[in-house]
């Protein structure tokens, strides 16, 4: 399904700050309509005053599945059609895996993984009924590689990558295109807002006792990253994966090559698990 390069309608979660807010601003600036959702709607009052009826704002905590379904239904009813759905809500926790609390684990998975899955499940029937659309999921280069002290974040990103890998095939016959957005080290408020758990004694001085991604190494532009997302979203044939940032490309290709090499080296041993052919 092709959508026009202008006058599209977007649905965005996690629109309060960072890339979510940037996406809302860029979409509105190009003349589009946006259904923006966030936990505290007042954070978009400035944009609401400026763009009026082109910006529809609702409170949404993506961990509340009942609320999520209600808001999705209301947005499609309000606009009649939504061309692009962007699942962006999420947060991070810096901690050694052993030091994480049960509550932190539950919250991260509920927000970054379960919330994203439930959003996709909620919007697909609407997209199918209208003849298609675009479903974009904010993932990360962290869906293909991993840093110490960021294990829970990687859990959610590797998980959502697998979910969308299967979902893409399921919904393609309905004219629904899916894209996993995989940025590198983008300077946003995400890292400032992330929880930080002091490492316990056994991990002090080790790999988990430092920020996985130092701020000084965050070289990718938020504005340019989102501009690339918008271009892909309204293109005739959006990619299944959108890698953004030279750092992401280099780190991801290196990690994938190493993983492939590890698998290829095991070919002979893998065959030892094959069933023994029956004697004739």
Automatic annotation (TrEMBL):
Q: Does the keyword Oxidoreductase apply?
A: yes
Q: What transmembrane ranges does the database entry give?
A: none
Q: Which InterPro entries match?
A: NAD(P)-bd_dom_sf, SDR_fam, SDR_oxidoreductase
The record's Gene3D superfamilies line, in alphabetical order, gives: NAD(P)-binding Rossmann-like Domain (3.40.50.720)
Keywords attached to this Swiss-Prot or TrEMBL record, sorted alphabetically, are:
Oxidoreductase
Molecular function, one GO term: oxidoreductase activity
Query: Can you tell me which family this protein belongs to?
Result: Belongs to the short-chain dehydrogenases/reductases (SDR) family.
Which PANTHER family does the record associate with it?
SHORT CHAIN DEHYDROGENASE, SHORT-CHAIN DEHYDROGENASE_REDUCTASE FAMILY PROTEIN
Q: Which NCBIfam families does UniProt cross-reference here?
A: PRK06482.1
Q: This chain belongs to which protein, by name?
A: SDR family oxidoreductase
| Species for this entry | Amycolatopsis carbonis
**Taxonomy-wise, where does this protein's organism fall, top ranks first?**
Bacteria, Bacillati, Actinomycetota, Actinomycetes, Pseudonocardiales
């Amino acid at each position: 399904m092709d959508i026009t390069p202008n006058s599209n309608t977007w649905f965005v979660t996690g629109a309060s700050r960072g890339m979510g807010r940037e996406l809302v601003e860029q979409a509105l600036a190009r003349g589009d309509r946006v259904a923006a959702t966030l936990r505290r709607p007042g954070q978009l009052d400035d944009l609401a005053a400026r763009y009026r009826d082109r910006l529809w704002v609702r409170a949404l905590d993506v961990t509340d599945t009942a609320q999520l379904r209600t808001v999705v239904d209301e947005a499609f009813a309000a606009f009649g059609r939504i061309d692009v759905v962007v699942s962006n809500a999420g947060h991070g926790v810096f901690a050694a895996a052993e030091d994480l609390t049960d509550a932190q684990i539950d919250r991260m998975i509920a927000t970054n993984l379960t919330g994203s899955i439930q959003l996709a499940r909620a919007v697909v029937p609407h997209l199918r009924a209208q003849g298609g659309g675009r479903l974009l999921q904010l993932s990360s280069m962290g869906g293909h590689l991993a840093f110490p002290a960021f294990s829970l974040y990687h859990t959610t990103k590797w998980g959502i990558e697998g979910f969308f890998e299967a979902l893409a095939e399921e919904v393609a016959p309905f004219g629904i295109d899916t894209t996993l957005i995989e940025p590198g080290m983008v300077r946003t408020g995400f890292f400032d807002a992330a929880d930080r758990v002091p490492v316990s004694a056994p991990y002090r001085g080790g790999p988990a006792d430092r920020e996985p991604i130092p701020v000084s190494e965050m070289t990718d532009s938020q504005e340019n990253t989102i501009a690339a997302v918008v271009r892909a979203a309204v293109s005739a044939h959006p990619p299944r994966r959108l890698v953004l940032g030279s750092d992401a490309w280099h780190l991801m290709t290196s990690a994938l090559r190493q993983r492939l090499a590890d698998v290829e080296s095991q070919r002979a041993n893998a065959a030892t698990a094959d069933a023994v052919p029956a004697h004739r």
